[in-house]
Amino acid sequence: METAVLAAVVLVTLISVVQAGLWWHTRSLCHHAAALGLHAARAYAADPAAGRASAAQFLHRTPNAAADPLITVTGTDREVSVQVSATAPHLLPLPIDFRATQTATGARERFTTPGGSR
Description:
The chain is about 45% helix and about 25% strand. By secondary structure, the chain is an alpha+beta fold.
């Protein structure tokens, strides 16, 4: 009897550790997609859609590890920010949303002249 209870606890713990690893992997994918989107969106005279497309293209190659991606690109004339969120795969049928969100922010590339305004 005690072995059956202990085995169930060990199994749930093991699956929880694997679930945490899947969430961490999805978080890493979101971070990399946000960095790629930032790289594309911050280029000189780039459109925010370029950043969104770059991040979406990366996440499209990982459909099972990052489901239901949401990509948001915002910015000003000096700064751009890309936020990527996606849902990690579920191992246990829990009503919890294992959603990971990462943001990358950087300065927008712009042309300046020596002694000019910054």
